[in-house]
Amino acid sequence: MPKIITVDGPAGVGKGTICKLLGDTLNAPVLNSGEIYRSIAYNLKRKKISLEDIPNIIRYVKKYDHKKLSSDKLYNNSIDLISSQISSIPELRKLTILIQRNFIKLNNNASRLIIAEGRDMGTVIFPKAEIKIFLWAKAEIRAQRRHLQVKNVRKSNKYNDILDEIIIRDMRDMSRKIAPLQPAEDSYLIDNSNLDIEQCFNRILKIIKK
Ligand code: DC
User: Fold this and answer.
1) Mean pLDDT per segment of 10 residues, for the chain of length 210 residues?
2) Between the N and C ends of the chain, which has fewer C-beta atoms within 10 Å?
């Protein structure tokens, strides 16, 4: 069984970049659980399945075969919000557990180490993980970073709109009844509000190497 390092945290905290760096440096595959919720969200939207129609969503997800989709399909305002919304459906979360376990099964023999990134990796999915990291940054800082990232691509994106969306997603992700975003008791908490990616990455590497 490979050792697992979990990295949880809110929207826009830099988990994706940090986990990619960790994966490359430690030669470990990365389970990006957010991408599972995003891919399901993308497909529900494409199939015009109403977000109010929970039985129909569940029927769809039971047959769902997880495949990698391109970033432009998965990372946009509409998918940000739909994925956050559907992720509070308990039955849907049960089904995504199977997809996440399958990832581990597929990498079981080939890898010594797996990085698992998301909201509930350290609390629900891998409670016995070797090392648990919880990343945090102030909502305003996360919105500033996101704004810098997207303003050249989508000039219409306003800082205040991005901040509002981040606050809405934080609230929804933290207050849902099942698997809310919260640090595992035995996690290392890193507030990266005043750290750049390299500083944050080095801090995590130091914890892993300890
Ligand atoms: O990490 P992300 O922004 O790509 O995740 C998109 C949404 O998916 C997020 O708003 C909440 C949901 N999610 C979740 O509920 N549990 C996870 N482990 C990962 C993501």
Assistant:
1) 94 94 96 96 97 97 93 91 93 95 86 94 95 98 89 72 92 90 96 96 95
2) C
Full-model pTM? 0.93
Looking at residue 149, what is its pLDDT? 78
Q: How many angstroms separate the CA atoms of 129 and 140, rounded?
A: 31
Report helix, strand or coil for 9: coil
DSSP bridge partners of 4? 114
Gap from CA of 163 to ligand 1 centroid (Å): 17
Contact predicate 33/121, CB 8 Å:
yes
Give the pLDDT of residue 106.
87
Domain that holds residue 53: 3-209
The residue ranges of DSSP E strands in the chain, in sequence order, are 3-8, 30-32, 113-118, 131-136, 188-191
Task: Decide whether any atom of ligand 1 lies within 6 Å of the 118 Cβ.
Answer: yes
Residue having the nearest C-alpha atom to atom 10 of ligand 1: 84
Domain count, the chain: 1
